[in-house]
Amino acid sequence: MNKLARRSILTTRSDPDPRLDYIVTLGGDIENMSPTGVEVRYVPDRLIIEPLSFGRYLETLGGLAWGSLEEIAVTVLDDVNNETVARWIQVTVSAHRPDASNVGTHNVIMEDRQPRWDNPRLLARLKQR
User: Fold this and answer.
1) Among 15, 40, 46, 115, which has the minimal tally of Cβ within 10 Å of its Cβ?
2) Sheet harboring 105-113: ordered strands across?
3) What is the pLDDT of residues 20-47, one digit of tens each?
């Protein structure tokens, strides 16, 4: 599946008040990958993601071949950023792998923000992973 088709699954709507900084959290599992969780936290600018479309997006990701959790995280970050142009975004991809030799968990956290956007008081309220 090409990236335009994949990104088109993420539908958006207008931010109800673009003057405000607030955090949106969406999360779910990629079912076909020994469970792999994906969480997106973002501060919207003009657009927000429709939650049901995020679920469909994760289902689509489950049908694709991935080489690593890092590859998934980069793809989700790029796709969500492309569709929303968020002020700030954080993507966390986590897998619990009890069968891996001495590695029970694998987590990847990626973050991006618009130039000149900063709200340290808002971001300080977030629980660290």
Assistant:
1) 115
2) 24-30, 36-43, 88-96, 105-113
3) 999 999 999 998 777 799 999 999 999 9
Q: Residue 70: helix, strand or coil by DSSP?
A: helix
| pTM assigned to the model | 0.91
Distances (CA, A) of 4 to 11, 48, 57, 79, 127: 12, 18, 12, 9, 33
Residue 4 has which token pair? 């335009």
CATH 3.30.420.310 fits 3-124, yes or no: no
Residues 6+ apart with CB under 8 A from 92: 37, 38, 39, 40, 41, 73, 107, 108, 109, 129
Q: What is the pLDDT of residues 65-83, one digit of tens each?
A: 998 999 999 999 999 999 9
| 89 touches 80 (CB < 8 A) | yes
